[in-house]
Write a structure and sequence with these properties.
By secondary structure, this protein is of the alpha+beta class. The protein has helices at 10-31, 34-60; strands at 64-69, 72-77, 103-105, 111-114, 118-122, 132-138, 140-146, 153-156. It has 2 helices and 8 strands.
Length: 157
C-alpha cells in the first residue's frame, strides 16, 4: 500500500466499535435502576412459581395455599399433617425441584403494592378457588393475575 493512501485499518475500526459498545452498555446501565431491570423477571418468576404450585397440588393430591406478606411469598399446605406437608400448616412446603423451602423473597426493592398480604388456595386438581391479582412495583408496575377455574397465569405491564 503506497504511503500516500490514508485510512483506518480493520483493527482500528474494530477497536472503536468495541469501545462504543462498552460506553453504550455503561450508559444504559446508569439510566435504568437495577430494580426496574429485575421487576419483569421477578414477576415472571412469581407466575412460574404459581404454575409450579398448581402442578404440585395436583401431583400430591393436596390443597395448597400461596401467601404473600411484606416482600415475599410462600407455599403451604392447608390441611393437617399428611406427607409431603410439613408438621405445621404455616410452614412452607419443601419444593421438590430445589429441595429447599418454597419461600421467595422479592429482591432489589421490588414490593407488593396490591394486595400487600393475600392468600390464594389451590385445590387438589391444581385449580385456584378464586381469581387473584398481585401487583409488584419498583418504580414501574407489573401485575401477575390468576384466573379462576382454569388457573391461567398472566403477567401484564
Amino acid at each position: 500500500m503506497p504511503s500516500s493512501e490514508r485510512g483506518f485499518t480493520v483493527v482500528e475500526l474494530v477497536l472503536v466499535m468495541v469501545l462504543l459498545a462498552l460506553l453504550s452498555v455503561y450508559a444504559v446501565m446508569r439510566s435504568v435502576s437495577p430494580a426496574e431491570v429485575t421487576l419483569p423477571s421477578q414477576a415472571q418468576k412469581m407466575a412460574s412459581d404459581i404454575r409450579h404450585a398448581q402442578t404440585l397440588a395436583s401431583t400430591w393430591g393436596r390443597r395448597l395455599r400461596i401467601s404473600t406478606g411484606g416482600s415475599s411469598y410462600w407455599v403451604t399446605c392447608t390441611s393437617s399433617v399428611v406427607a409431603p406437608c410439613p408438621a405445621a400448616i404455616t410452614t412452607p412446603v419443601t419444593d421438590p425441584a430445589t429441595g429447599s423451602s418454597f419461600q421467595v423473597s422479592l429482591q432489589k426493592n421490588v414490593i407488593f403494592v396490591s394486595p400487600s398480604t393475600a392468600t390464594l388456595d389451590i385445590n387438589s386438581l391444581g385449580q385456584p378457588l378464586a381469581a387473584a391479582s398481585y401487583t409488584l412495583s419498583a418504580g414501574s408496575i407489573k401485575t401477575v393475575a390468576v384466573t379462576t377455574l382454569t388457573g391461567f397465569v398472566t403477567v401484564t405491564p
